[in-house]
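Service request form, structural biology core

Requester: graduate student, group of Dr. S.
Request type: structure prediction, single chain
Budget code: on file
Notes: please return the result as structure tokens.

Sequence provided:
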Amino acid sequence: MSSPVTGPDYADRLARLRAELAARGLSGFVVPISDEHMSEYVGAYAQRMAWLTGFGGSAGTAAVLPEKAAVFVDGRYTVQVRDQVDGALYDYVGVPQSSVAEWLGTNVKAGQKVGYDPWLHAIDWARSLERALAAKGAELVAVDTNPVDAAWTDQPAPSAAPVSVYDAERAGQSAADKRTIIADWLKANNLDTTVMTALDSVAWTFNIRGEDVSHTPVGLAFALLHADATADLFIAPEKVSDAVRAHLGNSVRIHDRDAFEGALADLAGQKVAVDPDRAVAAIFTALERAGAKIERHRDPAVLPKAIKNDTELAGTRAAHVRDGAAVARFLKWMQEIAPQGGLDELGAAAKLRAFREESGVLRDLSFDTISAVGPNGALPHYKVDETTNRAIETGTLYLVDSGGQYDDGTTDITRTIAIGTPTAEMRRRFTQVLKGHIALATARFPKGTRGSQLDILARQYLWADGVDYAHGTGHGVGTYLAVHEGPQRIAKPAGGQAGTEEPLHAGMILSNEPGYYKAGHFGIRIENLVVVVPQAIDGAEEEMLGFETITFAPIARDLIDPALLSPAEADWLDDYHASVLAKLGPAMDGADRAWLEAACAPIARAPSALAA
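Core staff response, request fulfilled:
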């Protein structure tokens, strides 16, 4: 059910922005969901698009002209954007079918000036839009200060929370060793310095954690790392305690975050590595003006951060067992309470958090819990609030996608359960999703394989029925860091360029989360996290890899149609549930233990199982 747009006066906010643009001699402005670090999730101070339009998703852009405005979102948010953004104020534009450049190219007039904040956009995006506007006789203008900030009178300040030490006992490697690895990479590529802007890369490289972005334990900071293994860290000084300074040591020079742009001017004549996917346009401009020799390279922390060491893997396995026990208790509670009525999506999400907090070591959720029933479950990235909150009623499916942040690991799990008796359609679709999940979980593949080459395994049974899902099948996950981490992914090839993706490496953590969504009715998703591990295969002529599942919680047996499972798939499910019982059983007793044993019982075998 769509909810009317209520709350703040977004028409007034749009008018205030247009007045500010006119005062600056600008005809338009582009407002992304981004920060100075090109983060996926941003702090409250950087939620400019949400303030302007009301859109609460994690990916999107708004463009404003004197007479028209538009919001640009991908297929994950097609329904959500219409619920949250007033269609009388903004056109709804789908991407990648269209783009900001295409929309502006159609609607801009010759002579108009469109502004953008160079601290919020990638350099290639800016240059592409500059060309598109020039073709229409218009101009793209980099602003010195963001006009949204001028119109947003009660804008929050950036977080002042301190950063803390993430010790080598948990990280499995000292910060000094990580800087040495990066220094060796710089020397091998005949480079002097690399610019590091991604918040999780900074946190990983310096073995620090922060509280500046909800659900992601990072601190707002930039860094310059040099070939002599020293570094300059740009962070608000009040965020750095004596303990953190001692941890960083004399080889790391600490500066105010505001000094970062000026420090780029000191790199004149140096060969500087910059990641165009993670560093904003303003950084390239500052380096060009300084006379630095820019070389485009991927952030050197990205790949080693993604390939977890043994200490990180041991920690994340422990975190998943702890987290799985909380999820199992929640599933038992839902099975008992939800059919009685009186429960809603917000209440269920709060109860799940309470179960996680009982461990005493939960640091935060790893993202806003997707607690969705009925038609809300058909929105893959639904975010419940007071206006969308639905009662959990009998005859529906309830989908919960959630995770926790612990000192030793980051979790992300989705389970779908039936409230009451599921329909035959629900059971068929759930079983097809499960079959795809199993096919990916049991995949064996040669070293060098990319995630896009495996994606079809998870979709094949849905495709056989002429249905699909509009999101990727798997994303990388950090270790007490970002719940979405690159460069690994499992998804359809982006632009058909599978060869540009990172091959899967042993030690990487990914999600395995196929789904199905029937608009206006229900959603299904089954998500576990997996680790890429070596595979020993008799007679193998290639170095082979596979997946180890590290998420443990029961999968809803009453939603499975055993007649659609092959014997091998039923064996996998029984083996998985046996491991769930073995892992979680010691942490559960009494009625909780009895429920877990029943939930993990072997699946009833169909007389003639079909691999449909």
